[in-house]
Amino acid sequence: MGLLGFIGGCIGALGSAIMGSAIVQAAISLGTTLAASIMAMSLPQILLCVYICVLIAKELGILGPEQDEKTVEDLGDRAIQAREKGIKPENYKTYEEYLKAIENFETDPVRSSNISWKRKLDSGLSLLLTLINIKSPDSKSIIEMFVKGVAPKIMPDDKNSVLTAGVVDEKMKWSMMELAKNYFATLKDGGAGVKELAEFIAQKNESPEIYDAKMKADKELKAAIDEINKGEKKS
Predict the structure, then answer these.
(1) pLDDT per residue as tens digits for the range 52-103
(2) C-alpha span between 129 and 137 (Å, rounded)
């Protein structure tokens, strides 16, 4: 699924979300705030949060199975260049119309090469988080849990918070992707998906089964992070 499929999936998820509605405005504000918080982190912490957001978006039907952080980066590149040409959310009646404008926008390869990886990811993540929050407001509880509580524990002494275009360590990428995938896989084995976990964190569902699944997933995640941090200290 390319960007066209991504936009199509989003439109199906959104219906006709009116741009000036309280729901859309709150989602845009939250998406921008969360993306900014994530981008202020170190590289490994950023990558974990991005993969968590991507996996949530996949379960909600916003992203396709084969899409990853590259889709978010491409979307961000497109949104940045479109904004420079006057294509902004506030200029459209619905979020669907804005997404269609982004879909039809042709990026300039030269301009793309001059936009940093971090800025593209920030812009794309802001848009993706807005879509997640429009479709599933409770999902913000999962993202906030990782942004505020989990990600800061990964390589807390890492100073690589200033990123340059294209500088992404593949081993680190793989490690963060595995943390995110394994967390949701453990939850799924215990009978809890994104919806159930979001409701549990938001205290809307106190099922003991979800509690047990979360406790197991949390324990495994902590052990995996400890191993990563141990390895970094040795090196």
Answers:
(1) 999 998 888 888 888 888 888 888 999 999 999 999 888 888 777 888 888 8
(2) 10
Check residues 235 and 224 and name the one with the higher pLDDT: 224
Of 112, 148, 128, which Cα lies nearest the Cα of 55?
128
184: Cβ–Cβ under 8 A, 6 or more apart, which residues?
A: 55, 59, 194, 217
Cβ contacts of 233 within 8 Å, gap of 6 or more: none
Q: Domain segments of the chain: what residues?
A: 3-234
**pTM, whole model, 2 decimals?**
0.84
Q: Are 89 and 142 in contact (CB under 8 A)?
A: no
Spatial distance between the Cα atoms of 41 and 21, rounded to a whole number of angstroms: 31
Cα(110)–Cα(23) distance, rounded to whole angstroms?
Answer: 36
Rg of the chain in Å (alpha carbons): 18
**What's the per-residue H, E or C state across 23-61?**
HHHHHHHHHHHHHHHHHCCCHHHHHHHHHHHHHHHHHCC
User: Which of 214, 188, 190, 189 has the alpha carbon at shortest distance from 201?
Assistant: 214
Cα 95 to Cα 22, 75, 104, 134, 198: the distances in Å are 13, 15, 14, 10, 24
- Return d(Cα 75, Cα 123) in angstroms, integer: 8
Q: How many CB atoms lie within 10 A of CB 200?
A: 22
| pLDDT digits 0-9 by tens, 183-206 | 999 999 999 999 999 999 988 888
